[in-house]
Design the sequence.
């Protein structure tokens, strides 16, 4: 079993960054949601994922590496936000 909850090695993986993004957003989203509304929570999640990805999983220093890091942050955001919705209420039916 694991001896540590979160290590630098875990934060360099897709699963580690997704889990960390999900945890940070879910514990702090009330700050954004109360002030700005639901739609800004996704943007907040992307900013958290972008910061974490640039710090722990940067792809390179050139333009190509920066663009790949941004794309990875988008994928992490989608996985983190969708993963939380799937875990908390898998049979939810959204209506407009």
Sequence:
């Amino acid at each position: 079993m694991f001896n540590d909850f979160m290590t630098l090695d875990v934060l360099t993986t897709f699963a580690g960054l997704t889990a960390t993004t999900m945890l940070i957003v879910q514990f702090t989203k009330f700050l954004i949601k109360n002030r700005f509304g639901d739609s800004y929570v996704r943007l907040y999640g992307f900013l958290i994922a972008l910061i974490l990805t640039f710090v722990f999983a940067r792809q390179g220093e050139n333009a190509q590496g920066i663009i790949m890091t941004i794309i990875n942050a988008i994928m992490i955001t989608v996985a983190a936000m969708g993963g939380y919705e799937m875990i908390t209420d898998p049979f939810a039916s959204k209506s407009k």
User: Anything to note?
Assistant: The two ends are 45 Å apart (CA to CA).
